[in-house]
Amino acid sequence: MVIMLIDHVRETFFLHMQVGDPVDVTITSPELFFTRWASSICAPVFIFLTGMSAYLYSTKYSIEKTSAFLFKRGLFLVILKLTLVVFLWTGKYPPDRYYLQVIWCIGLCMIALSGLIYLPRNFQIILGIIIVSGHNLLDEFKVEAESNFFIPWAILYQREVFDIFDGIDARTSYPILPWIGVILLGFYLGPWFAKNVSPAIRKKKLLKAGIIGLISFFIIRYANFYGDFPRINTGEALTTFMSFIALTKYPPSLLFNLSMLSIGLLLLFLFEKYEDNKLTNIMANFGAAPMFYYVFTWQF
User: Fold this and answer.
1) How many domains does the chain have?
2) pTM exceeds 0.85 for this model
3) Which of 9, 103, 236, 256 is 20 to 30 A (C-alpha) from 89?
């Protein structure tokens, strides 16, 4: 939540310094690039932890009650995004354009999960891995605006702008298909945080998974054949490294999610290891009421 605020500050106070893409190494300063790169961890970890939290909820209630809760909470987030959050973002209502961003995405992922939790556990992890690792095969598949499937596909995968009514349109900033894979992974790994799992075993699993994920990321990125746009050698060490870690967030590529979720797992390991640390206790306060914190920050 604190890292997220850094990016919101950039968007609020540096609107006069617009760039087309803050992780485009050909046009972006290293300072802006690494600020934006650091904040990229927020969305995947938010959605991953949403899935994990849904699993922990399901340990207390029936699958039917869990499904109903996820559906209602997801629908609430979608409505909240289309009303209050849009107003806070634009300063007027209705806006000229609805930007369907992270709150919208989390809401729709929760609605999707409300049905997917009925799948057998092995199917959940297989489907999650297939979506996260395989969706880049759809990158070149485009649906034209004339098609009846244009808007559904834009919401699901193709980042687009489409008309709603009376000169008002919407932009699908967060196509949801890859994120559904992320929330499934979080739901499947939820047992790691169950009460009957010792902290030592949990830390071991988090550390192992995080390291394996990062090693896999470096191997795939170095091979430069799949999972995102090809990296480039600029002839200069810093920008070449920036190109190596410059990854696609909209929609999130395999390499984007692989790197950010792996870092997230390692951070969970560190927070668990140093859970009585004064800094982590302070930081925990910002995560205790994430929706209030998110909405409150837009007041400034």
Assistant:
1) 1
2) yes
3) 256
